[in-house]
Structure formats: C-alpha cells, structure tokens
Amino acid sequence: IIKNNLYYELTSETKTKPVSAIKIQMDVLDRCEHSCSGCFVNRRNNAPSDSDLAGFMSRVKSMTEEGLLVDEILIGPTDFLSSSNFYDILSNKDLLKTINDNSPILAFVTTLMGGDILKFCSFITKNINTDTEIEIGIATNPETLMDIGYIEDVKYKLSILSDNLEHDITYTFLLNIEDREIDYQRIHNHVTSMFDTTFDLIPSVARS
Q1: Are strands 133-140 and 199-202 parallel, antiparallel or unpaired?
Q2: What span, in angstroms and rounded, lies between the C-alpha atoms of 167 and 134?
Q3: Local mean pLDDT, 10-residue blocks, the chain (208 residues)
Q4: What whole-number distance in Å separates Cα of residue 113 and Cα of residue 49?
Q5: How far apart are CA 109 and CA 33, in angstroms?
Q6: What are the angstrom distances between the C-alpha of 83 and each of 28, 45, 74, 98, 172?
Q7: H helices of 3-85, where?
Q8: What is the residue-wise DSSP string for 145-184?
Q9: Do 175 and 141 contact (CB within 8 A), yes or no?
Q10: Where are the alpha helices (DSSP H) in 66-137?
Q11: 92: burial class by Cβ within 10 Å (0-12, 13-18, 19+)?
Q12: Pairing assessment for the beta strands 105-110 and 69-76 based on DSSP bridges
C-alpha cells in the first residue's frame, strides 16, 4: 500500500491528465452477500457472455489505437469478494489482455467483510502486471466506521493486501448518499486519523 495514500486520494482525481483519458465502468458482477443501505445497483443478470466481452474489448482497442488513454477500469457493480462470477469475468483472456496492455488503475468495490482475500491476491499476482495499480473502494456506513472492532478488522485485511501484492494499492471509503444527517468533517477527520485516507459520498457505492 503506497505510503502517501491520503495525499494520493485527495489529489489523484484532480491531477492534470490527457483530455483523451477515459474511465471504463463495467457492470459485470453478479450477486452480493450484503444489503448496503442506499445501494441500488442490480445484483443479478449482469454477467456478459464471452462474445460480449470480446466485442467490448475490441472497441476499447479501437479507441486506444486512436490515441485514447484507458486510465481506469472499474469491475462492478457488486462486492467483488462476494460476487459469484468475479474470477470467471477477470479470467477472460480479452479483458486480461486489455488490462495488461494498458496498465490502468484497476478498481473494485468491497465491504472487506467476508471473501477470500488471499485468493484474490494470488490471482492478481499471477495474472495482472505490476504496472497496474489496484484501487479498493471500501463500502461502509457512518456508524460502522466508528466501531473499534471494525477498524481493527479493516486494518488487518488491508495489511493482508499489502503483504501479498507487489502492486501499488490505494484505498478509500465509500458512503452511499441517503436522506440522513452526516457530520462530514467528523467522518473525514476520523477516517484520516484511523486509515490515512478519505471517503467519497456517492450515489451507490459503484457509481464513483
């Protein structure tokens, strides 16, 4: 995990990038064990066929040949650690080739509650080049963020990622926009102090 994670998360989206840089958001994961308050993404029937992925990646290749930069690929919309088809999707040869040819930020959403993190690390190490940065969006809620047990559990799981991946890893917390009173400054100060990062308030956790 990069040492200046907080600085990176606060500045990476505002750095000057080529106008031709694009972000690809792929709603391809099925199922989720969680019912996060405020989440509205589809949990079923997202999985594409191999021919769908091949066709899409072919279009991405055409765009890069025209000079577009693939800056980020988000694999969503559900918790990747609890989805039923994550490894099927990420094992697709056309998707892997697109990732490894472009070395974008490879982004995922998860609660970090459940799932086999070591299996994920092993897969990424075997299949994704180390020029590709891994970005983890941690879906949570304001109440849970203050729980000491939760804090220690998340820190432990982040340490597993750090110890088992050679890739640069960044992370931030994701809070769903809801009709509730939120002390933004208090949450920001807490997350900065506990985790050396910040949080994004967004409409459903995969819609960053």
Answers
A1: unpaired
A2: 7
A3: 61 57 84 53 60 86 87 88 89 93 93 91 97 93 90 95 95 76 85 90 56
A4: 28
A5: 13
A6: 10, 12, 14, 22, 20
A7: 5-11, 50-65
A8: HT-HHHHHHHHHHHHHHHHH--S-EEEEEEEE--SS---H
A9: yes
A10: 86-90, 93-102, 117-127
A11: middle
A12: parallel
Position 46 scores a pLDDT of: 59
Helix (H) or strand (E) holding 21: strand 21-27
d(CA 106, CA 125): 13
**3-class secondary structure, 205:** coil
pLDDT confidence of residue 85: 87
Token pair listed for 53:
């992925």
Which residues, including other chains, have CB under 8 Å from residue 11's CB and lie 6 or more apart? none
